[in-house]
Design brief:
- By secondary structure, the protein is α+β, with helices and mostly antiparallel strands.
- It has 19 helices and 16 strands.
- The longest helix has 20 residues.
- The chain is globular and about 90 Å long.
């Protein structure tokens, strides 16, 4: 019989992994609530028309399509079937798709429930998303996103708060040294205007966004392939080497974009955020201007964020987001500005694991295992277990009255720190023998003492 397997880019999670993931998610969730965000959930799949065309050409290719129920080929004409054009065939056989991210479904939610929502609406959402991407380290086909968005306000104080939110979460996770990279789509529009490539803005930003992944020369090659003129690429050269503090970089950009109204507007917005953060100060993260950051998604219109792991950790971005002034407009709801960020749970997990930052207290284990000596003894043990559980102590009874060596071995393999022996003599005395599995020390004690030690 063929050994079962799972699709590439998906994973099973062990008890330890699930507990550690819950630790990260609980930390993020508590911070979301602390900043005034409210939780929502949306379906795992949406109507295809909700998702398609919202992420650019590259994003559309990565959306998992769901085949229609029943005989989905019956309505396909012979001519279309013979043509074998997947772009034309897909809409005929698939009307739904797995969500690619949480932002577009959120925009759909806002439009659909606009009469029930109080604006500005601050929502958070923590659910899995799916992308038909090529699996590699830190890149999966099924993964969780943890998003926080505000819609109904164009105030730049929201961007300031979202930078603080990143800093708060990474501080609580003891993940210091992360870099919050920031740019502005208006600046990118100004650059495209400056080099005479306004009509190629999307191609230009998609290529530029790959700079840290494929390098300067390959970015230039891709731009040429997209029809961006050599003279335009030459004018871009100073951008590849902008250095200095955030203020110094903004000064350089002001000089480069002095004739671009939209570019200067983007610089003004970035100055506001940088000045506020310098006053408020960050503890775990650093805010950095990255003029090549584009994030390649069509819906960003203002600030763009991307979070990089600490130096020395080979990992892609562990968070990102930005301002989208017209996202709900694609669903018929105009003038609804929004801004949001996302935490990459899976990548954050890998970074914490690599840096050994998971607290020892984050464990999937029980605190104590009661040895099973038989029916009467098991019932006696369960009375104590009930009280320990009520006190918040994870406790369990070995289910079978088998050899004690086997039961002790089970506790050892599970890394359960304590075992309790409650046999006939303990029942007579109304006591329990508590054994520390690491030191080997044991003591006979009453229920009150037992609870105190285990607590």
């Amino acid at each position: 019989m063929k050994k079962p397997s799972i699709p590439k880019g998906t994973r099973d999670f062990s008890p330890v992994e699930v507990t550690r993931r819950s630790y990260i998610m609980d930390t993020i969730k508590a911070s979301f609530a602390n900043f005034g965000f409210q939780p929502i959930e949306t379906p795992s799949f949406e109507n295809s028309e909700t998702l398609m065309g919202k992420y650019g050409e590259e994003g559309d290719r990565l959306i998992f399509k769901i085949l229609n129920s029943g005989d989905f080929l019956r309505k396909v004409g012979d001519d279309l079937y013979t043509e074998k054009d997947s772009a034309k065939l897909t809409p005929k056989i698939s009307e739904k798709a797995l969500r690619y991210d949480l932002t577009v479904p959120f925009a759909r939610y806002v439009v659909q429930h606009q009469n029930e929502i109080t604006f500005p609406f601050k929502r958070y959402q923590m659910q899995p998303v799916w992308r038909a991407d090529r699996p590699q380290k830190g890149r999966f086909r099924e993964f969780y996103q943890c998003d926080a968005d505000v819609v109904g306000s164009s105030s730049l104080w929201q961007e300031v708060e979202l930078v603080q939110l990143y800093d708060t979460v990474f501080g609580k996770l003891k993940l210091e040294g992360v870099t919050i990279k920031m740019n502005n789509r208006k600046i990118l529009s100004g650059i495209a205007e400056m080099i005479g490539a306004e009509d190629k803005l999307i191609d230009f930003t998609v290529a530029l966004d790959k700079l840290d992944k494929i390098g300067e020369e390959k970015v230039k090659v891709e731009m040429r392939e997209k029809g961006i003129a050599e003279t335009a690429i030459t004018k871009l050269q100073p951008l590849f080497s902008v250095t200095g503090t955030a203020s110094e970089k903004l000064a350089t950009l002001k000089s480069l974009l002095s004739t671009s109204e939209i570019g200067l507007q983007g610089i003004s917005e970035m100055e506001f955020i940088v000045d506020a953060i310098e006053t408020l100060e960050l503890s775990a993260a650093t805010l950095e201007i990255d003029v090549t950051l584009a994030r390649g998604l069509n819906y960003y219109t203002g600030a763009i964020f991307e979070v990089a792991a600490p130096d020395g950790v080979a990992m892609g971005s562990i968070g990102g987001g930005g301002r989208y002034d017209d996202l709900t407009g694609i669903f018929g709801m105009k003038d609804m500005s929004g801004v949001g960020i996302s935490f990459g749970l899976d990548r954050i997990y890998l970074v914490l694991e690599e840096l050994n930052l998971f607290p020892e207290t984050v464990t999937a284990n029980s605190k104590v295992l009661f040895i099973n000596f038989g029916e009467k003894e098991a019932l006696y043990a369960l009375q104590a277990i009930k009280l320990l559980r009520a006190a918040g102590i994870n406790a369990e009874l070995y289910p079978d009255a088998t050899k004690m060596g086997k039961q002790m071995g089970y506790a050892d393999k599970r890394d359960i720190p304590y075992v309790v022996l409650a046999g006939e003599s303990e029942m007579v005395d109304g006591t329990y023998t508590l054994k520390n599995m690491k030191s080997g020390e044991q003591e006979q004690c009453g229920l009150e003492r037992l609870q105190k030690v285990l607590k």
